[in-house]
TrEMBL record, chains A, B:
EC number: 3.5.4.26, 1.1.1.193
Record-linked CDD domains: Riboflavin_deaminase-reductase
Protein keywords: Hydrolase, Metal-binding, Multifunctional enzyme, NADP, Oxidoreductase, Riboflavin biosynthesis, Zinc
Domain of life of the organism encoding this protein: Bacteria
Cofactor note: Binds 1 zinc ion.
Name of the molecule in the record: Riboflavin biosynthesis protein RibD
Coiled-coil parts of chain: none
Domain CMP/dCMP-type deaminase: 7-132
Catalysed reaction, written as an equation: 2,5-diamino-6-hydroxy-4-(5-phosphoribosylamino)-pyrimidine + H2O + H(+) = 5-amino-6-(5-phospho-D-ribosylamino)uracil + NH4(+); 5-amino-6-(5-phospho-D-ribitylamino)uracil + NADP(+) = 5-amino-6-(5-phospho-D-ribosylamino)uracil + NADPH + H(+)
Family: In the C-terminal section; belongs to the HTP reductase family. In the N-terminal section; belongs to the cytidine and deoxycytidylate deaminase family.
Pathway: Cofactor biosynthesis; riboflavin biosynthesis; 5-amino-6-(D-ribitylamino)uracil from GTP: step 2/4; Cofactor biosynthesis; riboflavin biosynthesis; 5-amino-6-(D-ribitylamino)uracil from GTP: step 3/4
InterPro entries per the UniProt record, alphabetical: APOBEC/CMP_deaminase_Zn-bd, CMP_dCMP_dom, Cytidine_deaminase-like, DHFR-like_dom_sf, Eubact_RibD, RibD_C, RibDG_C, Riboflavin_Biosynth_HTPR
Family matches, as PANTHER family: 2,5-DIAMINO-6-RIBOSYLAMINO-4(3H)-PYRIMIDINONE 5'-PHOSPHATE REDUCTASE, DIHYDROFOLATE REDUCTASE FAMILY PROTEIN (AFU_ORTHOLOGUE AFUA_8G06820)
C-alpha cells in the first residue's frame, strides 16, 4: 500500500533532515540519517545516527518514544534514508521498525547499498505498512552524497574548496595568499573540512604553507583524515602535518626506508603510479578512498593539483569563496590544459550562493555526477 | 510637523519606487521618480517622471487622481525624491503639491541639486503639511545613484560590466570569448546598457569585436550614447559603431582632419590628454560626462581599459556575470599594477547575487562612494 506525500510529509521530513544534519561530523563512514515519529501532529520520538557501532536513527527515535512513554503503534515514522535490512555493526533497523508497528513509513531516498537496495521497504510493505517514498529527495541526497556515491559509483563525492578574488586570483605574484577571504569564510571552510572524511592537498601547498589541515575553527569530536598527493615522494619528514595524527601520502615513487620512517609517525604511504611518470593515478586514488570507506573528500590544494583533479574528472563540486576584491596580475586558481574552444570547458551548475562575512560562497556541481546519484536513490512508488 | 514612518509608509513607498523603476530607461538626464497618492489604504493616483520636457512624477500622480475624480486634499503623497522647487524645463512640482493640499508628504531621499536641496520640503512644511523623510533610502538612492552622484560629486555613477568564468577568465588564450555566459546573462547586460546614459568601451574591444554597443536584447525607446577611449586616435573610420547614431571618441591626440571626417558621421571627438603621453585623462573624462549631464556610465571593455579605470578610481560598481565553468590558462578580467600586499587591493562590498539563466550575476560596489551619496541624500527629520 502506498500513500501520496503531502505538505505535512514535507514538514516532518524537514525535521528528520535537521536531525540528520545535527550529526554531520560524526557518523562516517555510515550515512547521516534522521528519524521523526509523529501522530496527530505531535512528535512521539526523534533521533539521528550515532557514531559507528552506536544505534541508527530509527532505533534512537524508537528509544526516544519509549523514554517519553509513547506507543508508536499506528503512528507515522519519517526517515531520511531507507531503513537497513542487514546485520552490520548493529542489527537491522527494519526489524525494530516492524516490531513497533507504525501504520505508515515515509522515506526520503533509497539506500543503494547492495545489502539494502529496496529490501528494507519491501519488508515493511509485506507487513502491511503504508510506505511513501521520494519526499525531499534532493535535500536527503545532499546530506549523504558521499555515502551514496561510494555505494553506487565506487567513488567518494569530491568537492574542491577554493578562495579567490573576484577576478579569480588566489595569490599575489609574490605568493602572498593569506588571507584573501575573511575570518567568517575561513570558519565556514572548516565546517566543510569537519564534515568530510579526508582533507586532501598537494605537495606544493605543503611546501608553501606547511599546513596542519585539521579542523580548528568549528568544534568537532572527530578529525577527518589528512592526505597529500606527492608524486615524487619528496615531502619533508618534518612537515607540521606529521603531528602524530593519521595521515596518508599518495605517491608514484617507492621508497621503503622513508615509508617506514613515516609509518612511525602514523603516516600511511600509498604507492599509486599513474600513466605519467612521477604522477599519482588520481582516479585510482579516488577509488582507493571509496574502498577504504571514505565518503566525502575535501580538496584544498593549489592551482596544480586542483587543475589536475578537474582535468581527470575527479571533482564533483566546487566550493568557492570569492572575496570582493580585484587583484589583477596574480596567480590563478586552477592550472588546466589550454582550451581551443569554449565548448571544451568544464561545465558546472550553480547550486548555492551565500554571503559569508564580507565574502561570497558559491557552490557549483557537475550535473552528470549528481544525476547519476539521483537515479540511484530514486525509489519507485510501491504498488499496494 | 514631522510624523514617523511606519510599515504602511514602507509599503506605499515601495509602490512609488516601482513607479520610478518603470521609467528606468527614459528620464535621463532627469532622475527617475515615482509618486503615489493614498487615502485610507486606497490609491487616488500615481505616476512616474516622463521623458525630458514632460511632467514629473508628482504632476502625473495629481493628474491621475484628477482623471479618477479623486480629491487629494487631506491625503498622503509618497514620492521617491524630494519635489523640485525651481523652474527647469517644467514649473516647480512643489507648487502643484501645495495647491492639491495633501495632509502629509512622505519623501524617500533629498535632492542634492543645489536648486532644490531641502527647499522643496521647507516649503511644504511652511504650509503646515506633515513631512516624513528617510523611507526606503537605500532603494531610492539605487534607482538614481547616477543623478545623485552628478549633482553631489560632479561625477557620474560608473559601473563596469564583466563576464568571466568561475576562475576569472574572460577569454581563451586564442581570444575566443563569445560567449562565455549564456543568452539570459547577455539580455540582462543589455538591461544595464539601456538604463545607462552612455556605454563606454576601449579601442582594444573595437579592434577585436567591432561592436555596435547599442541596446538590442531589451526594448527601449531611447538608446544610450556610445563612447570609445582611444588614446592614440587610431580608431578605424569604418568601425561598425559609426552607424550614424551619436558616438563620442575620447583621445589624447589631436587630428583635426580625422575629427572632421568623423563629425560627418555624427561622431564627437573629445581631446583629453592625461599625464601619461598617448593616454586619455580618465578622471577628466568622467568629469566631462557629468558636465554633459550623463548620470550613469556603463563600462564594457577589455582587461586594459577596465584595469585602468579601476586603478584611476573611476569605477563605483562591478557588474559581474560568472559562468559556471573553469577555463584555466586564459585571459584575465582586469589588468592592474602588480600588488605587493593584499591590503593594497581594491575592495568592494557585495550588494547582490542572482542566478541569471545558468550564470550568476554579482554586484559589488565601492563602499566609500556609496556612503558619500547616502550622506548627500539624507534629510534630517524636520522638527515641527
Amino acid at each position: 500500500m502506498t500513500t501520496p506525500s503531502n505538505s505535512d510529509d514535507i514538514f516532518w521530513m524537514r525535521r528528520a533532515l535537521a536531525q540528520a544534519e545535527s550529526v554531520l561530523y560524526t557518523t562516517a563512514p555510515n550515512p547521516r540519517v534522521g528519524c521523526v515519529i509523529v501522530r496527530d501532529g505531535r512528535v512521539l520520538g526523534e533521533g539521528a545516527t550515532q557514531p559507528p557501532g552506536g544505534p541508527h536513527a530509527e532505533i534512537r527515535a524508537l528509544l526516544d518514544a519509549q523514554a517519553r512513554n509513547e506507543t508508536v503503534e499506528g503512528a507515522t515514522l519519517y526517515v531520511t534514508l531507507e531503513p537497513c535490512s542487514h546485520f552490520g555493526r548493529t542489527p537491522p533497523c527494519v526489524d525494530a521498525v516492524l516490531a513497533a508497528k507504525p501504520a505508515r513509513v515515509v522515506v526520503a531516498i533509497g539506500d543503494p547499498n547492495p545489502l539494502v537496495n529496496g529490501q528494507g521497504l519491501a519488508r515493511l510493505r509485506a507487513a502491511g505498512i503504508a510506505v511513501t517514498t521520494g519526499v525531499c529527495v534532493e535535500q536527503a541526497l545532499a546530506i549523504n552524497a558521499g555515502f551514496i556515491s561510494r555505494m553506487s559509483r565506487g567513488l567518494p563525492w569530491v568537492w574542491m574548496k577554493m578562495a579567490a578574488s573576484l577576478d579569480g586570483r588566489s595569490a599575489l605574484h609574490n605568493g602572498m595568499s593569506q588571507w584573501i577571504t575573511g575570518p567568517e569564510a575561513r570558519a565556514d571552510g572548516h565546517h566543510w573540512r569537519a564534515r568530510s572524511c579526508v582533507v586532501l592537498t598537494g605537495m606544493g601547498t605543503v611546501l608553501k604553507d606547511d599546513p596542519l589541515l585539521n579542523v580548528r575553527e568549528v568544534e568537532t569530536p572527530r578529525q577527518p583524515r589528512r592526505a597529500v598527493v606527492d608524486g615524487l615522494f619528496g615531502i619533508p619528514e618534518s612537515a607540521r602535518l606529521f603531528d602524530g595524527g593519521p595521515v596518508i601520502v599518495f605517491t608514484a615513487r617507492e621508497d621503503a626506508a622513508k615509508a617506514a620512517r613515516l609509518a612511525a609517525k602514523n603516516v600511511q604511504v600509498v604507492v599509486l603510479p599513474g600513466p605519467t611518470p612521477g604522477r599519482v593515478d588520481l582516479v585510482g586514488m579516488m577509488q582507493w578512498f571509496a574502498q577504504a570507506q571514505f565518503n566525502e573528500v575535501h580538496v584544498e590544494a593549489g592551482a596544480g593539483l586542483s587543475g589536475a583533479l578537474v582535468a581527470a574528472g575527479c571533482v564533483d563540486e566546487l566550493l568557492l569563496y570569492l572575496a570582493p576584491v580585484l587583484l589583477g596580475d596574480a596567480a590563478g586558481m586552477v592550472r588546466l590544459p589550454m582550451l581551443e574552444h569554449l565548448d571544451a570547458a568544464r561545465r558546472y551548475a550553480f547550486i548555492d550562493s551565500a554571503q559569508v562575512g564580507a565574502d561570497l560562497r558559491l557552490r557549483a556541481r557537475v550535473e552528470g555526477a549528481w544525476r547519476t546519484l539521483m537515479q540511484r536513490v530514486a525509489l519507485p512508488p510501491i504498488a499496494s
